[in-house]
Amino acid sequence: MGLFASSAGENQALSRKVRLAALQKEARKLTKAKADLERQLNAISAAVKAFGSTLAAGSTNGRKKKKRYVSAATKARIAKAQRARWAKVRTAKKAA
């Protein structure tokens, strides 16, 4: 056997070691990418928290504002008051 000669078993073991090393390298890359993404997510979350009310226009703490309803009695009272105001304006115009 020469200097470069090796058995099939040694080639398979070497091949497994190379594949394992490649997989470990990819795992490290993915772990680093995950850490980078988590840092970005934390930065974005902090920005949203800081500007929450500005970014979520028309909402409170990122939630939509609850629609407020006016009862029929209240609507009638508002309409009556508005008619009285307009009557006052019209009578002032006629008097002038």
Mean of residue pLDDT values: 84
* Quantity of strands, as a count: 2
The largest sheet, given as strand count, sense and whether it forms a barrel, is: 2 strands, antiparallel
Structural class: mainly alpha
Overall radius of gyration? 38 Å
- How many structural domains are formed by the residues? 1
| Residue windows where pLDDT falls under 50 for at least 5 positions | none
Morphology? rod-shaped
What attributes does this structure have?
single chain; 96 residues; mainly alpha; two-stranded antiparallel ribbon; 3 helices; 74% helix
Characterize the structure shown:
Helix content is 74%, strand content 4%. With 96 residues, it is mainly alpha-helical. The chain has one domain (8-59, 71-95). It starts with 7 loop residues before the first helix and ends with a helix.
Blueprint of the fold:
Elements: H1 8-50, H2 52-55, E1 59-60, E2 63-64, H3 72-95
Antiparallel strand pairs: 1-2
State the gist of this model.
With 96 residues, the protein is mainly α.
